[in-house]
Amino acid sequence: HLYFVSSTTKVLTEFSQLVNELDNDDFSYVVPDFRLNKAFDKLSDLTAEQKNKVEFLCNECCYVGCADRKNCYENVSRKNLGEDVEHTCQAPNAAEGYRFSKAMKNPGFISVKDIKDVYLPMGFSNFKIEGRGLGSALVLEFLLYYMVKPEYQIHIREAIYLDNMLDLF
User: Fold this and answer.
1) Which of 30, 100, 157, 165 has the fewest CB atoms within 10 Å of its CB?
2) pTM
3) ∠ CA 147-60-167 to the nearest 5 degrees?
4) What's the rounded Cα separation, in Å, for the pair 60 and 39?
5) How many CB atoms within 10 Å of residue 22?
6) Residue 102 to residues 16, 43, 75: CA-CA distances in angstroms?
């Protein structure tokens, strides 16, 4: 009962590549490279069936001009498999690591407002949040931002922080 996803790790930066993956019956979902997130003129031309298979990566922090993204993903995958590989990202400010504030400035960032006002009306309904391995504090921020109304976010933060449920230190 498993299904296949054409992952963002394929780095599909050309729209024609995305369409080819969407038309491949082997895949239930296709995650385009974040640089295609705002290609609205082309995205709007997709069929309803194709739109149902697109899963947008919302909060990518990667440098938009990165030419080494595929190699980076490959090295991360190899490390996860236990292989002894090293990769140092050469993108500007890469040493800072992931910052949600930086992701929010990325041209491919998809905000909650974008989802409600642009993507859902266009017929898209699948969205992916990056960062499951970044630590509980960041994951909390992603979940709060994307899944909790702003007026309730502080209450959740306080409850978690005051109950010492978050491993901040």
Assistant:
1) 165
2) 0.87
3) 60
4) 16
5) 21
6) 29, 25, 23
- pLDDT tens digits in sequence order for the chain, 169 residues long: 899 999 888 888 899 999 999 999 999 999 999 999 999 999 999 999 999 999 999 999 888 888 888 888 888 788 878 888 887 878 888 788 888 899 999 999 999 999 999 999 999 999 999 887 787 788 888 999 999 999 999 999 888 877 765 555 5
Q: What SS3 string covers 56-96?
A: EECCCCCCCCCCCHHHHHHHHHHHHCCCCCCCCCCCCCHHH
CA end-to-end distance (rounded Å), the chain: 40
Residue 115 CB coordination number (10 Å)? 17
Q: Is the dihedral of CA 102, 104, 106, 108 positive or negative?
A: positive
Q: Is residue 112 within a helix (H) or strand (E), and if so which, with residue range? A: helix 112-114
Q: Radius of gyration over alpha carbons of the chain, in Å?
A: 17
Q: Nearest CA to 7 among 55, 43, 51?
A: 55
Residues 4/45/127/120 CA torsion (nearest 10 deg): -140
**Contact indicator for 10, 34 with CB cutoff of 8 Å:** no
Closest CA to 93 of 63, 67, 118: 63
